[in-house]
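Researcher: I've got a protein sequence and the SMILES for zinc ion. Could you write out the 3D structure of the bound complex as structure tokens? I'd like something to compare against our soaking experiments later this week.
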Amino acid sequence: MTTARDPIRVLPYGAIHMPTVLSPEHFVSLEDLPQFDGRTVFRKVFSELNRRGRSGFVVASANGVTRYVKGMELAEAAVKLAGSKHDQFLPNARADALRQVSDTAVGQVLDMEWAKSSVLVIPATPVDSSADAAPLQNAADAVFAIVQLQRPVGWFLNHEVVMQTSTGKPVFVCENGHDNPDSDHGSCYYCPGDIVSVKRV
Ligand SMILES: [Zn+2]
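Model: Sure. Here is the predicted complex with zinc ion in place.
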């Protein structure tokens, strides 16, 4: 995924092509990556992501901003969980399950087992904007807080696949094909249908 950059690493130390953490292929400014308080309910998070045309977001807890969330994956996992409750003899079961998630604080949702794979933990120690990006790129998929003169300026998403999770926006699709900006009360805004899938637009 970073093949194009690999030759750079074999250059002698101090080579002028040293990648920086501010390079636009990996850096997202504070303004461009939505941040939510962990107490914000799931539905509101997705409504805001839809408004801002974003998929990835970071979540602040009492310990600071500790989690990056692949929003598309989280939305898919929630809809899949609700789908697993689908029961032809309990017509409201699927919508009820999604409504419950919808009304839950996103910080709490992220602690649930089914949601964990959509989270990347942000290391507690921020990285200075002058740092060499190569060691960060050599790590597993991760998001790092970047500071300049000790002030937060944005985020380093270390691989292209991580970067891709920040773009586009998730849309919740009902069984009749209507696009919904968020999971609302578990069913469609435009018809009585259940939300059955998620797509990225
Ligand atoms: Zn509908």
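Model: The first helix runs from residue 6 to 9. The helical segments are 6-9, 42-52, 71-83, 93-102, 106-110, 134-137, 160-164.
Researcher: Great, I'll pass this along to the crystallography team.
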